[in-house]
Amino acid sequence: MDLNARIQAEHEFRHNAQVMISxxxxxxxxxxxxxxxxxxxDIPWNPNRLxxxxxxxxxxGQRKEVHIYSLVAVDTREGKVLxxxxxxxxxxxxxxxxxxxxxxxxxxxxxxxxxxxxVEAIQGRRTLDEIVAEIELIPGEDAVxxxxxxxxxxxxxxxxxFQGVLEDMRKARENRLVPEYIEAFFxxxxxxxxxxxxxxxxxxxxxxxxxxxxxxxxxxxxxxYGEVFPEYRKIAFSKxxxxxxxxxxxxxxxxxxxxxx
Length: 261
Known about the structure:
4-stranded mixed beta sheet, single chain
């Protein structure tokens, strides 16, 4: 899918469907924090890709407990290597007190990638027992120490202009458009343009049909703001309200609002 098709699929999944089946392409570039269940049918050899997949739903704005299941065929060479690695990672996770265990695989197996281990097992360059034993013998304490040192080093070399951040936040508060004003403008504009807009029982809005004239935007508009969809079932104009009521947040830069403007 190209970018517009991916955005449309994300919108369809959020508003009209319960299940999305995706290739590896769905592992990045989309925000799916409105769902909380993921099943990894095919485990990628690069653990960072697995972390990227999880990041689609386990991200800012997620209000539910996330459950992720990974299907591994344990009676295969690949499965046995993964099983041994997951056991090691589970112990390291307990020691770190963090769920982001897949960030540390490079520290768990110094000089070896997961792909290299699996290829060695499949090609028979080493026996499966040797590879599993190597993983099991890696000192968990040393791995945890290396991970913590790497994290502290990254923070030490990262310069953050806190004063500048505070100043930007102050300007943003001064210049922001109050959500109530945007919502009132949106409703008036809908009445003026003849766009049907309904108030839902929970206080959010529903736009059951967006006229073709508003959806037929030029390519430059779509590249900048995205696609305008035929229907919006649940929208809110405050980020806090959108998160609380699991609605789509509409503000400056949202394609529906920009189309109406």
